[in-house]
């Protein structure tokens, strides 16, 4: 069970949902730019975003229209193949990753899809056009190499090798089972990623329920681990989210010495790992 693996590496899970809320001025990378250019892990990215959509009156949310500051920091840490996640056996070439609320940039999927078996980017339908354009524009080199490959072995590259998959998934109305349309039922779901998704108290229950449902897709003996990286904004929202998570999950805050640069103490960001609670009989063994 994933929860026992986390206990072995990180000790007992957290029991306190409170977090220190710093006063740092954090938020968007640059909400006025139509294209954000970044260099991460030796790769260059040009990511389209939509300042107009961000500032629109769309009732069901606009925060996914631009890139947030925490995402490049988390991406750089994950792309370094951190020892913690390797030890937990959730980040390796056979891994399947599902990201919830990825936004238009899809940066984490672009960074990690070449390092894992399958990376699925999900968000509401309104971000899909921008997201797919960003994937296409930032994976052309991969596609060109694959199409021109003259290798004759049985593992010959295909045009979508190393390219993240996309799926429209709304936490409030869509079912996690939709993931089975692009992830083979026999494949595990090893890691679920939430990057700066916790900002609206009305969305906490459907978000947590979606996490539960995704982690349960492969049966009661789930090995799925959830990674939550977030900006510490409003104490009441953060605490409500963690309290709601703790109803279903064992939750650990990633220790300072295990976290990537820019995500540690005083940064205004925090990273948690979570796994579905084990049945009480398993805890007693």
Automatic annotation (TrEMBL):
GO biological process, alphabetically ordered: methylation
Pfam families assigned: Methyltransf_16
Name this polypeptide is given: Ribosomal protein lysine methyltransferase
Sequence segments annotated as region (Disordered): 1-22
InterPro entries tied to this protein: Methyltransf_16, SAM-dependent_MTases_sf
SUPFAM superfamilies in the record: S-adenosyl-L-methionine-dependent methyltransferases
Annotated source species: Exophiala sideris
Keywords: Methyltransferase, Ribonucleoprotein, Ribosomal protein, Transferase
PANTHER family: HEPATOCELLULAR CARCINOMA-ASSOCIATED ANTIGEN (PTHR14614), RIBOSOMAL LYSINE N-METHYLTRANSFERASE 5 (PTHR14614:SF109)
One Gene Ontology term, aspect cellular component: ribosome
Any one GO MF annotation of this record: methyltransferase activity
Keyword Transferase set for record: yes
Domain of life: Eukaryota
Organism lineage string: Eukaryota, Fungi, Dikarya, Ascomycota, Pezizomycotina
Encoding gene per record: RKM5
């Amino acid at each position: 069970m994933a929860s026992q693996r986390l206990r072995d590496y990180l000790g007992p899970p957290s029991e306190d949902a409170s977090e220190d809320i710093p006063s740092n001025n954090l938020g968007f990378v640059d909400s006025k730019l139509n294209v954000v250019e970044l260099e991460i892990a030796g790769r260059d990215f040009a990511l389209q975003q939509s300042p107009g959509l961000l500032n629109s009156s769309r009732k069901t949310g606009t925060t996914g229209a631009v890139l947030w500051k925490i995402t490049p920091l988390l991406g750089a840490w994950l792309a370094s193949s951190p020892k913690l996640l390797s030890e937990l056996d959730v980040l390796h070439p056979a891994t399947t990753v599902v990201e919830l609320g990825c936004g238009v940039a899809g940066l984490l999927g672009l960074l990690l899809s070449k390092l894992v078996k399958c990376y699925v980017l999900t968000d509401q339908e309104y971000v899909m056009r921008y997201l797919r354009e960003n994937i296409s524009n930032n994976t052309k080199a991969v596609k060109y190499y694959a199409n021109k490959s003259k290798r004759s072995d049985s593992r010959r590259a295909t045009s979508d090798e190393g390219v993240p998959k996309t799926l429209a998934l709304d936490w409030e109305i869509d079912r996690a089972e939709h993931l089975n349309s692009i992830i083979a039922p026999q494949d595990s779901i090893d890691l679920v990623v939430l990057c700066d998704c916790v900002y609206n108290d009305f969305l906490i229950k459907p978000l947590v329920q979606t996490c539960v449902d995704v982690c349960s897709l492969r049966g009661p003996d789930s090995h799925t681990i959830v990674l939550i990286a977030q900006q510490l904004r409003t104490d009441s929202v953060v605490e409500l989210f963690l309290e709601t998570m703790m109803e279903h999950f064992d939750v650990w805050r990633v220790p300072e010495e295990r976290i990537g640069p820019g995500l540690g103490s005083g940064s205004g960001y925090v990273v948690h790992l979570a796994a579905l609670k084990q049945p009480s009989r398993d805890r007693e063994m």
